[in-house]
Amino acid sequence: MRRHLVVGTAGAVLLGAVVSLWLAAVTSSAPPPSGGTPAPGDPAGCVPLPAGSHVLAAIDGRIPVVVHVGRTTRPGAPLVLGLPGAGQTGRDFASYTNYSALADRDGFSVAYPTATGARPFWNVSGSLPGKPDDVAYLRKVIAAAVAATCADPDRVGVTGVSNGGGMSARLACDTSDLIAAAAPVAGGYKTLPDCHPARPVPILEIHGTADHVVPYGGSGPSAAGAVPAFLAQWRQLDHCWGRPRASAPHPDVIELRWAGCAGGAVVQHDRIIDADHGWPGRTDIDDVKGFASTRRTWAFLSSFRRSTP
What we know:
hydrolase; alpha/beta; hydrolase activity; Rossmann fold
């Protein structure tokens, strides 16, 4: 039975068997409205927007980006870029992830951009009609959001769901000079042959085994690739070797973590048993009643700083 949220209890014996089978499979093989511009790594003298949500000036004629400055945020805090899925806006992503509430609690800022089109869709593969350059656009969004919030430019993380998750992986390929880490959710569906990051980029991918839109094993309505192939590509790009450390942070979650990659990078995968397509946990940021993707992605992204190649 498919679940959009993670519930239930998995036995230890079953979990051990699933982990063993899984390991065998995966180990083969425009200017802001206010505020100054901080110098790289030094926000001194920068005056950020006040706490709360704000709309930045439109960039490239697109839907304006919403930024949220957490209540306890200070200059030099991290910035998270949150990318919505197909047909969704940045405001939608803010609503169902409740990322702004977590920013209020933990003291960071979030930017919520929207893709182009009547049914917004990120140009992950570069083949959309009109060929919108979403990488160039999101570079401008990051620059504007960092300036407006006085965030540390070395602590910019990106996450997203579905098509937005795929775009976050695209940014890991193409903007490793700007972002510290990426955490796609239900978005590890493409191995990108033209992916050449300038440095190893930490990656967390979260995916449900019962995803009917982006199937875990590939294909489906999105003609997606398999999640294990996505992970294998990033292990190769980040020069990760050996077997992962396996754990069960939740009864229905198997975490695989490849550490010791080049440049201090990590490749991590949270495999959610029987979960369907979406953002597991939705607005639960406390990770008490179930698995919370918002808290999980933030914990990962906030662990890394951008380093030079």
